[in-house]
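[Help] Beginner question about ligand-bound structures

Sorry if this is basic. My supervisor gave me a protein sequence and a SMILES string for nicotinamide-adenine-dinucleotide and asked me to "get the holo structure". I don't really know what that means in practice or what format the answer should be in. Inputs are pasted below exactly as I got them.
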Amino acid sequence: MAVCLITGGAGNLACQLTWTLAPRFERLVLFDVAPAPIGAVSANATFERGDLLDVQQLEELFKRHQPTTVIHLASLLSGSCEQNRKLGWQVNMDGTFSLFETALRHGRPTVLFASTIAAFGGVLPEVLTDETPQWPDGLYGVTKMAIERLGVYYHRQHGLDFRCLRLPITVSRHAPAGAASALASHAFIEAVRSGQFTFRSRPDTKLALIYVRDVLRAFAGLLGAPASQLAQRVYNLSAMTVTPQEIADAIQHRLPKAALRFEPDETVAALLASWPGVIDDRAARRDWSWCSEFDLARTADDFIGALRQEFARIAN
Ligand SMILES: NC(=O)c1ccc[n+]([C@@H]2O[C@H](COP(=O)([O-])OP(=O)(O)OC[C@H]3O[C@@H](n4cnc5c(N)ncnc54)[C@H](O)[C@@H]3O)[C@@H](O)[C@H]2O)c1
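Answer (accepted):
No worries, everyone starts somewhere. Holo just means with the ligand present. The predicted complex, written as structure tokens, is below.
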């Protein structure tokens, strides 16, 4: 029986992923320290509350469900890692180490991991490739880069089918509130919900963005690829390079009454400017036929349409 365990299963991407993966798995088990999923989940998904740092709990979880696939999304994100470095290290590093070890003891399921473009840093080239040296600036990126390496170690030395995507900034309904990377998501959400949004970025910073529906397709695509086709285990992903001004224009075009302003906050602006704007994902295209479907116009149409429906439902 095909069973998929999703760590961080109550979170933003996990909930949406259940709908994409529902037809592929008999059961999806969502595991998270949070009390309940943040969004709606598919009918074959069940939620189990628990802590990745509890080794015994993890062992019992694997014993009970015998997952054939694990999607590892549990993580402290960029802001939380800086606010609590010890917990960030523990959840991201110790938690992932325990997960890999538990997976080895329980039939070596495929493990798909969500890394990030924040695993790069320092002075970056104009175009970021899979070969660009990784010197992340934040602790979040440091842990993500280390997990990429750790996963490849478990693959080479212990036969674990580790696969990994480096996600650009994701435009998504439940983008975490405090993250600088959530700016694009919140611009759409607030423009529909309240009719106004203030960009804390500069208008002309180049941002590598991806719409969540493309992210979900990418998870499914890499998961479904025969292992023999994978020339590497960690893949850059790319969809679009846009500026905050272009995002504002795309929103304004569809919501002419929205009041959109720019009041750059230097910390946020500098952080966004330090991230890569253009990403080369040719290995993903070559090895598992990755191709993004959502440019900015399609993203704006789809996301604004979905948000309008949701908020109209809430209002009625
Ligand atoms: N959304 C993005 O833009 C983006 C971009 C790049 C990478 N990613 C990665 O994708 C993954 C999912 O992102 P998301 O947007 O859904 O974030 P999210 O914050 O909504 O989900 C992460 C989940 O991990 C859970 N978690 C934290 N500590 C835990 C623990 N000790 N035990 C069990 N669960 C724990 C949290 O409660 C949360 O529900 C993360 O690993 C993130 O780093 C996301």
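A couple of things worth pointing out: Residues 85-105 form the longest helix (21 residues). Residues 7-8, 10-14, 32-34, 51-53, 73-75, 77, 91, 95, 114, 116, 167, 169-170, 172, 175-176, 181 surround nicotinamide-adenine-dinucleotide (CB under 6 Å). Feel free to follow up in the thread.
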